[in-house]
Amino acid sequence: MTHFICETCGTRFPASERPPEHCPICRDERQYVPAKGQSWTTMEEIAREHRNRVEPVEPHLFGIGTEPDLAIAQRALLIQTTAGNVLWDCITLLDDDTRRRVESLGGIDHIAVSHPHYYSSMVAWARVFDAPVHLHAAERAWVVDPDPLVEFWEGERFELPGGLTLYRLGGHFEGGQILHWPEGAGSRGALLTGDIVQVVADRGWVSFMYSFPNLIPLPASEVLRMGRILDGLTFDRIYGAWWEKVVPQGAHAVVQRSVARYVDALEGRFHRAAQASGDAGPDRG
Hints:
Layout: E1 5-6, H1 24-27, E2 40-41, H2 43-49, E3 51-58, E4 61-67, E5 76-81, E6 84-88, H3 96-104, E7 110-112, H4 122-129, E8 133-136, E9 150-153, E10 157-159, E11 165-168, E12 177-181, H5 184-187, E13 190-194, E14 198-199, E15 206-207, E16 209-211, E17 216-217, H6 220-231, E18 237-240, E19 246-247, H7 251-266, H8 269-276
Parallel strand pairs: 6-7, 7-8, 8-9, 13-18
Antiparallel strand pairs: 1-2, 3-4, 4-5, 5-6, 10-11, 11-12, 12-13, 14-15, 16-17, 18-19
Helix pairs in contact: 6-7
């Protein structure tokens, strides 16, 4: 029996004799099945060609990412608190070297994952470190590898030890969650958002989407709702889903002006303003 892993999204499935017929996470319109079709790998095959990079990001925060890139290529974040360590988001590869390095940092006491695209091998991590996985109940159907260590919470917020709080922000997924870390960014507050709040190429902005690979936007009403929740939180920094996707400072203001720009663009005001200012295209005169 083998735990087969989807090569496209990195999700591990329950042990079976044959690979599943398909990955439901990738068949959903928010993800995709490659043109070559569904393909599978295993943890052993991944470990032969990949390694995990573990390094400090800021005091009491460590990134864990796989090299070379694997599947969606997100990196996890490990927060150290006086009440235990929390792993935010997850990656697929878990080998002996990674286990030893994480244990040297204090291990993992709790795991929380922003949304199904980053569930990866969260159950393997949970079992190795004997840590519960906290997910919003709205995403129960997306857990393809059920386990007693996967716990579901309901409502709009969930308190974790060490002063950390999960918020249901929705958007990309109904139960999409973010993590608020008050002690982050030198006690100015940090948000860990995956791509529920997407840090874009210009670090002065963020964005929000229903589907990133298929470029399906969210409605203005949903983005405004998300913006109201974020406006009520205290934070100066945002950590997105990848190593370089960070808004280092001024993130609260970045989010609010990004919400306004997104809604303006959806409702046509952004385009009309560009036309009126002469910025609609190159000068062809």
